[in-house]
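re: ur question from earlier - yeah i can do the single chain one, its not a big deal. heres the input i used so u can compare w yours
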Amino acid sequence: MTRRSGHLTSADHHTTGVVRAMSDGVAAGRLELRQLRFFVTVAEELHFGRAANREHIAPSALTTQLQRLERTLGVLLVDRTGRQISLTAAGARFLIEARQILEHVDRAAMVALGAALTPPTLRIGILDEGYDAIRPVLRAVRAAHPELEIHQVTAGVPEQCRLLADGRLDIGVGRVTGAPPALASELFRLDPLGLLVRADHPLAGRSAVPVAGLRDETLLLADEDRAPEFNEFVADVCRAAGFFPTMFPGTVQNLRAAADLVLQGTCVACVPGSASGFGDELTWLPLEPAVPHYPWSLLWRAQNPSRHAMSLVATARQLCHDNGWRAVAGLAS
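and the output i got, formated as tokens:
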């Protein structure tokens, strides 16, 4: 084996200096748990006002605590130069460790109180139509928090609102037209709406389908009790084109059943583009002109949301920014 030289490089000196500064700060009692919590909240919100509201302190006090943390560490954690704040490379690395420290402190408190240690959980309300829209977010959250148990609850937006208010749900996913005051919401993805038809359907050979072309089709809508917001969106698209669709006289509870009805040739269905992988026997076609985009939003409790719920919201914001999920119709991410 080749032995490493005992001489320190410039990089070693820099790293040693940073570690020594951090150690000195901790030893002097300047690194506080509340500062870690404030930093994590800022990292999740990427907005000082929202972060201060979550922590129930003034934005100026939050900024002061974050600056003290940065002085203690000797590095900048947040880039404040742009229109929207962002984490520096050091901040992104520190966020991982800060979260783990806070989680370990919580576990230590539970042990001290004699509480049984149970894995953290996150309960997400979602319908079949929205799973593919949120799937990249769930994968990223699972990768960042392998200890987290994620439970998916089949529920439309009306039921999600009730479950969130009752504390039986942490996150909701769907189209939000007006959240109750006790809930917060944020658009994270605009999903192109299209038509699902059999591969031998007369429209299947087209690159796109005019909305007016639905006038002569029997359209399968969602169960009104389950997803009224989706039906309302589709109906509004049709009304804007000057007609109301002929509806299939029946309902289904999931996309697989809807696809089976379409495959039988009894109807067609409007489906978001993120959920368009249905095999060779069915074809998904975008609607035109000016493809309508279905707005997927996240819902959570405005007061005292769980840390993991806000971690999911932060992850969705980052993926939205990285992938341009809200780049349609002039909406910036």
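The first strand starts at residue 78 and ends at 79. not sure if urs matches, ping me
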